[in-house]
Structure formats: structure tokens, C-alpha cells
Amino acid sequence: MIAEAQTWLSNGKLLITGEYLVMEGALSLAIPINKHQSLSVRSNTLDCIVWKAYISDREWFTATFGLLKLDIIDTDNHEIAKKLQDILVAARQLSSNFLSNVNNGFDVETIVDFNIEYGFGTSSTLISNIAMWANVNPYDLLAKTFGGSGYDIACARSVSPILYQRLGSKISVKSVEFSPKFKDKLFFVYLGKKQKSSDSIKAFKNSGKFSINEIDRISDITSKILNTNDFDEFKMLIDEHEKIMSKVIGLPTVKSLYFSDLQGSVKSLGAWGGDFVMVASDDTELETRSYLLDKGFDVIFGFAELV
Q1: How far apart are CA 8 and CA 115, in angstroms?
Q2: Which of 89, 91, 245, 267 is the most exposed place for a label (fewest CB within 10 A)?
């Protein structure tokens, strides 16, 4: 008889405003997207955890862990297995009942339905799912493993866009509507260079230059972006957001680097430098897609395709 599996599902994410400064208390707008990672667990008769990870229907990672010590018995990618081991160990530290006092092992299967290079939240969706399996606080598990502000964890569990703010250990998550009248003019474009969030966070902590004034202004811009239905005001706000963050982290804006002749505005999303950007275009969808393709950017999602 095949044991029935338990399955959990978490959403991917996009951070629309507040990148970097979300870690310093800025009010930020984030959206869960219609891309996910699932985690299914069923009992086996072995004294170990057999882990298989899939991207859609393609297996991309396997590992076997001892149940008692969570040691790595076998794997086809030791770096990934070590990080996964760290997460499982951290979950057990948060709950002594997790993977303890059981008479069986487990077959675990994760399925990501998006390209893991996109920065949609491969790590955050995994943390969220493992936290549900272990019945522990996902923010605590994040703090013990990858670190970060936690907005991505909030998106993993949300059914709507959110306003997210973290002040010290206090987290505020408010469900909001974000469906502007001009959403057909908004596009999410992949720059083709996956950014490692932990490296970006470390660089910001080491060299970011900001004051309470920048934090307060980003929070104000977030509120205005959420509430405006005027496309010109929206573009002006994201231009100002880009200008502020360019100064804070000491990097040029993405528009100046790649889209200087675009009729419209461009905003970095999350870590600057290679993941997704949001394009707010004055041109038609056909003209915008043609422009982006001519620039060499061929991963383009319309607003409604992701949100």
C-alpha cells in the first residue's frame, strides 16, 4: 500500500518597491506571482530521507539524508545538498519534534514550475514549504538559513499583493489591491543574469549609504505607487525611486544602462544587476515587445501573465 502524500504549495514573488531598504524598515510593495514550488512528503520503509527536486517534469537534483543525524549519504550536487541539510537542521532546532521519534523515513519531492534562474523565489518557496512541513515559523527558519527581510516569505503565503514592513523583529503584512488601470503598459523583463540575493544583501550592508530620509521617501513612494491610476505620475514615481536607490547603492540605473532610448520608465526589481525589471512603456505592446527583443531581451511577461 502506497502511503498518502502531504503536499504544500508556496508562491513566487516580485518586489515592486523598497529593494534593499526593505531590510531597514522601508514600506515596500510586493506581489505573489502565479509561479510556485510544491513540496510533497510520503513515508517510506527506509531509515533515511530520499529527496528529489524537479523543474516542471525534469529532475535536477537528488540527495539522500540519514534520518537521525540528517547527514548527507548521497547526492548529485553536494553544494545544494549542504544548503538543504542546513535548512533541515535549522527546522529541527526550531522544533525538536521535526523528523524525530519516527519509525520510518520519507520520500520528498519538490516541483518548481518556473526557471530557477529568474529569481522568482526558489529559496523562499522552499523555506515556506519546509516550515509548513515542520510546523515552525517561516521567518525564524529564514533567519537561521538565508537571511533577508522576509517579504518573500510573506508573498509565499499570500493570495494578494502586500504592503510589507519590517521594523526590528516586528513584521507588518497588509493585503492590498494592485491592479492599475494602465497595467497593460507594464512588462516584467528578465535581464539574463541571475543575482544571488545573499551576495547582494552583503554588498548593501557593507557599502550602502542612506539615512532615515531615504527610507521615509521610499515608503512614501510605495504608498503613492499603490494608489495612483495616473500613468505619468506612476512613471515619475518609479524614476524617483530609481534615482534614490542608485545613490544609496552606488550603481547606475537600469534604464541608463540598457534602455536609455525607451519611451517610458524602467525600474529594477529586487537585487539590482540581472534579475527582472519592470518596464512602464508609452508605446503599444507590440512596439514594446519589438523594442525589447531588438535589445536582446526575450523573456518578457505582461502584467497579467504573472500577477
Answers
A1: 19
A2: 89
Q: What is the pLDDT of residue 86?
A: 98
The full set of domain ranges for the chain reads 6-175, 183-306
For 101-144, write each residue's pLDDT tens digit. 778 899 999 999 999 999 899 999 999 999 999 999 999 999 99
Q: Which CATH number is 183-306 given?
A: 3.30.70.890
d(CA 22, CA 97): 33
Q: Where are the alpha helices (DSSP H) in the chain?
A: 78-94, 122-134, 138-144, 151-156, 197-207, 212-227, 231-249, 254-258, 285-294, 303-306
pLDDT in tens, 171-228: 999 999 999 999 999 999 999 875 566 666 666 666 777 789 999 999 999 999 999 9
- Cα 123 to chain center, whole Å? 8
The set of residues, in sequence order, having a beta carbon less than 8 Å from that of 28 and lying 6+ positions away, is 15, 16, 17, 18, 19, 21, 22, 149, 151, 163, 164, 165, 218, 222
Average pLDDT, the chain: 93
Give the 3-state secondary structure of residue 174.
Answer: strand
| C-alpha cell of residue 201 | 544583501
In CATH, what is the architecture of 6-175? 2-Layer Sandwich (3.30)
Number of residues in the chain: 307
Which among 111, 198, 185, 184 has a CA at the least distance from the CA of 152? 198
